[in-house]
Amino acid sequence: MASSRSLAELEAEVVACRRCPRLVAWREEVARVKRAAFAHEEYWGRPIPGFGDPAARVVILGLAPAAHGGNRTGRIFTGDRSGDFLFAALHRAGFANQPTSVSRDDGLELRGAWMLAAVRCAPPANRPTPVERDTCLPWAARELALLREVRVVVCLGAFAWDAAFRLRGVAPRPRPRFGHGVVVDGEPWAVLGCFHPSQQNTFTGKLTAGMVDEVLGLAREVAGG
Questions:
Q1: Mean pLDDT of residues grouped by 10 in the chain (225 residues)?
Q2: Contacts of 36 (CB under 8 A, 6+ apart)
Q3: Which CATH superfamily is domain 4-222 in?
C-alpha cells in the first residue's frame, strides 16, 4: 500500500512544477487578475496534486483544473459547477463523506477513491497542447504507481480516456473508442469511460445524475467492491 509519506513527497514536487511556460503564465495570470466573484480570495495558482484515499481501488481521472475552480481552490473539481455535480454523485455512491466541495479545508474525504488530473495546471480555453499533456503525464504515472490497490480508472471525457491508455503503456490495437459506460479490461487496471461533468453536458442532459450513478456503480463492481 502506498505510504502517505511518499504521496506527500510527490505532492510537494507537483506543486513546485514549472515545466510548461504557457501553462505557468496562464495559471498565474488568472490567479492575479481573478474573477470578480472571487476577488476577495487568494487563488492557489499552482499545479494541482491528486487527493483521496491512499488505499483507493477506484481512480477518477479528469482533464485539468478549471481556471476559477481548482486553480483557485487548489483541489481538482473543487469550487466549480462540474465539481458540484461530480461530488454529489460520489457521495451518493459512497465514495465521498459529503456531497459538496468548496475549498481544500472543507472536510471532504474520499473513501476508496482517488482523484487526479491528466494535466495539473489550468490551460487557456481548457485545451492543453499535446506537448503539455506528455510533459505532465509522468506525474500521474508516478502517482498511480504509489496507489497499488487501484483496479479501475474512470475517465471523465475523451482527453482523460486517451491519457489513461498512455499511462497504461501498451494500448489495445485498434485503441478502443471512448464511450460513456465503456469498460476496457487490462493491466494494471481497467479503463472506464464517463462523459465529463461539464455544464455543457449536464445542462443539456447529455450527462444526467442517473448516468453518473450507473458508471460509479460499475466502477465499484469492476474494482471488486
A1: 77 97 98 96 98 97 97 97 97 98 96 98 96 97 96 98 92 88 96 97 97 98 90
A2: none
A3: Uracil-DNA glycosylase-like domain (3.40.470.10)
